[in-house]
UniProtKB/TrEMBL annotation:
The organism of origin for this protein: Aspergillus brasiliensis (strain CBS 101740 / IMI 381727 / IBT 21946)
Top-level taxon of origin: Eukaryota
Residues annotated as signal peptide: none
Key words, A-Z: Membrane, Transmembrane, Transmembrane helix
Bilayer-spanning residue ranges: 6-28, 40-64, 70-90, 97-121, 133-155, 167-187, 207-233, 245-264, 270-289, 296-316, 336-355, 362-383
Protein name: Major facilitator superfamily (MFS) profile domain-containing protein
C-alpha cells in the first residue's frame, strides 16, 4: 500500500474522530436545548472519555484479529453511528440516550486512534515527522472544522431539531469515511503481532501511564470546556467576539506540537522536553488563576496547553516502543498506557462539574491544574531516578 494513501486514509479517520475534541461546542448549548444544569453539560465529553478508556484497552486484541486498517475503519464507523444516535436523541430531547450514544462512540475513538498509530508507524518506518504529525494534524483539523462551523453558523439561534439534524449529517459523513476505509484497505495492514499474553502492568508501563496522565490532564480539561471558556471571555465585560472566532485557529497549536515534537525531543532529550512542557503549562495556569480577567493571558495559556498536548502525545509512542521487547508487545503496552488519556478527560470533567457552580471557578480550576502539572514537572526534573531508564 502506498505511503501517501496510508497518510490520506489515516488523516481522514483522525479528522473524523478528532471532532470529539470539539464537543464543548454542543455542551455549551445543552442547558438551553434540553434544560440540563451547567454541571451536567460536561457529561458528553466525560462519557466519551470513559468509552475511550475501553477502546484503547481493547484495541490490541481487535488489531490482532482484524488488522489495523479494519480496526480504524470500525472505530470511525462506530463514532459516526454514535453521533447519528446523539442527533436523534437530541431531537427527541432525550439527554440520557445521547450520553449512551457518546459512551459507545468513545470506544470507537479509542480503536481508531491506536489503529492509526499502527498504520502510520508501519507506513512511515523511517519518517519520524510523518509518524508524529499525522495524528495531531488530523485531530486538530476535525476539531477546528467544528469550531469554525459553530462560529459561521451560531448555534445560539438554532433549536434542538436543527442541531440534531446537523449531528446526524456529520455522523453520516463519519460512517462514510469508515466504510470507505474498510472497502479500500481490506486487511492490508499487518496486525502488529500483538498476540501476547495478558500480564500485569510493567514498570515502564506504570511510569508512562503516569507521564501520559499529567501530560494529558491540562489539555483534556481545556477541551472539555473550550467553547464555554471562549463564551465567557467573549462576554462584553471581558473581551469581544474575537475570542470565540479564535477557537478554530487555536487548533493550529495542537497540530504544531505534533509537527515539532521530533525536533523538541531531539534537541532537549525526552526527559527535559517533558519537564519543559509540564512546567510551562503549570506556570501559565498558575498565572491565569491570579489574573483571570486577562483575556490575552487566557489565550496564551490555551495555546501553550494545546501545543504541549500535541507534542507530548507525539513523543510518547516512540518511548513506549523503545521499551517494548519484543516489538510485538508495543500495541498492548501502548494501549494500556493510553487508558490514562481517557482517565485524564474524566478527571478534567469532574473538576469542571465540581467547580461549575462556584464563584471564581476558572481561577480555582487553573490553580489546581497548574500546581499539579508543575509539581510533576519539577519532580521529574529533581529526581532523575523517576523513570530514568525509560527517558534516557
Amino acid at each position: 500500500m502506498s505511503p501517501l494513501w496510508i497518510a490520506l486514509v489515516s488523516f481522514a479517520n483522525m479528522f473524523s474522530v478528532g471532532t470529539f475534541y470539539a464537543l464543548s461546542v454542543l455542551q455549551v448549548q445543552l442547558p438551553r436545548l434540553v434544560g440540563t444544569s451547567d454541571a451536567w453539560s460536561f457529561a458528553p465529553f466525560g462519557v466519551v472519555c470513559l468509552g475511550l478508556t475501553v477502546g484503547v484497552a481493547t484495541c490490541a486484541s481487535m488489531i490482532a484479529q482484524r488488522g489495523a486498517d479494519v480496526t480504524a475503519a470500525s472505530g470511525t464507523t462506530l463514532w459516526g453511528f454514535a453521533v447519528i444516535g446523539a442527533g436523534f436523541s437530541l431531537t427527541r430531547l432525550r439527554f440520557e440516550y445521547m450520553l449512551l450514544c457518546f459512551l459507545f462512540g468513545g470506544v470507537g475513538v479509542g480503536w481508531t486512534y491506536l489503529a492509526v498509530v499502527v498504520m502510520v508507524g508501519q507506513g512511515f518506518p523511517h519518517l519520524p515527522l510523518a509518524r508524529s504529525a499525522i495524528g495531531p494534524i488530523g485531530f486538530s483539523s476535525g476539531a477546528a472544522t467544528c469550531f469554525y462551523l459553530s462560529c459561521a453558523l451560531p448555534l445560539s439561534a438554532v433549536d434542538a431539531d436543527r442541531v440534531g439534524q446537523a449531528l446526524t449529517l456529520a455522523g453520516g459523513a463519519f460512517v462514510a469515511v469508515g466504510g470507505a476505509t474498510q472497502l479500500l484497505m481490506p486487511g492490508s495492514t499487518n496486525n502488529g503481532q500483538c498476540n501476547s499474553p495478558k500480564t500485569s502492568l510493567s514498570r515502564s508501563e506504570r511510569f508512562f501511564s503516569m507521564l501520559l496522565f499529567f501530560n494529558a490532564l491540562p489539555g483534556m480539561t481545556v477541551f472539555g470546556a473550550l467553547a464555554p471558556l471562549a463564551s465567557i471571555y467573549a462576554d462584553g465585560k471581558r473581551g469581544d467576539d474575537s475570542m470565540t472566532l479564535l477557537l478554530p485557529y487555536s487548533m493550529l497549536a495542537l497540530a504544531s506540537g505534533g509537527v515539532l515534537a521530533p525536533t523538541i525531543s531531539a534537541y532537549l532529550g525526552a526527559r527535559h522536553a517533558f519537564v519543559a512542557l509540564l512546567c510551562l503549562r503549570g506556570a501559565f495556569l498558575v498565572l491565569l488563576s491570579q489574573f483571570e480577567e486577562e483575556s490575552m493571558l487566557g489565550l496564551g495559556a490555551v495555546v501553550t496547553i494545546l501545543f504541549a498536548h500535541g507534542a507530548g502525545f507525539s513523543i510518547l509512542p516512540g518511548l513506549v516502543k523503545a521499551q517494548s521487547t519484543p516489538p510485538g508487545l508495543f500495541l498492548r503496552s501502548y494501549g494500556r498506557v493510553l487508558v490514562t488519556w481517557g482517565v485524564a478527560g474524566i478527571v478534567g470533567c469532574t473538576l469542571h462539574t465540581a467547580l461549575s457552580s462556584s464563584i471564581g471557578s476558572i481561577s480555582a480550576a487553573s490553580l489546581v491544574l497548574g500546581l499539579l502539572t508543575s509539581a510533576f514537572g519539577i519532580l521529574l526534573h529533581i529526581m532523575p531516578s523517576l523513570g530514568g531508564e525509560f527517558l534516557a
